[in-house]
Amino acid sequence: MAVLIGMSTSIKGQKHELVQEETFVGRNPQNHIVIDDHSVSGRHCSILRDERKYTLVDLGSTNGTRLNGESIIKARLRPKDIIQAGGIEFMFDGQDVELPDTAPQDTARIEVSSEPSSVPPSFHTASPFGTRRDSRKPWAILTFILIALVLIALVYFVKKIFGS
User: Is 68 left (phi over 0), alpha (psi -120 to 50) or beta?
Assistant: First the structure.
């Protein structure tokens, strides 16, 4: 049997078995899975079950439905997929879930770890736009020049008024 496991803080660890042919997710109490969060629509999305195949469907939600970070309207689910309804995340899992025929075998999968995550080495590569310059120095020079001009103008007008 497939399940949705709460990943976000407000629902962390909650498990919802997907026993209906269509399981509705949203803020309204009539849904099978009720999420009390302002980023979730009244009837946000649904999960269709066809024997051992599961499909995620966005129901025209305001903040959209994402699967593994990609916005979707309709998509087949695989174990360990991350579903995001508004700002709430679930992990889809199940031992008997049939995988889609067209699923690429070499795609990166999301791994859930209880350890703190670290920044991937690819984040430390150089920018294609070159190195970042410190933009404070030109502003400091410009500020100094403007202050000097104001002081010179002040001295000029003081001499003009009091006549030396």
Answer: left
Q: How many CB atoms lie within 10 A of CB 60?
A: 12
Residue type, 77: L
158 vs 112: CA distance, rounded Å: 72
Q: Which residues contact 66 (CB under 8 A, 6 or more apart)?
A: 72, 83, 84
- Helices (runs of H) and strands (runs of E) counted in the chain: 1, 11
What is the gyration radius of the CA atoms in the chain, in angstroms?
28
Residue 26's φ and ψ, nearest 5 degrees, are 175, -175
What is the DSSP pairing of strand 81-85 with strand 88-93?
antiparallel
Look at residue 34 and give its three-state secondary structure.
Answer: strand
The residue count of the chain comes to: 164
**For 25-84, how does the pLDDT look when each residue is reduced to its tens digit (9 = 90+)?**
999 999 999 999 999 999 999 999 998 999 999 999 999 999 999 999 999 999 999 999
Q: pTM for this structure?
A: 0.60
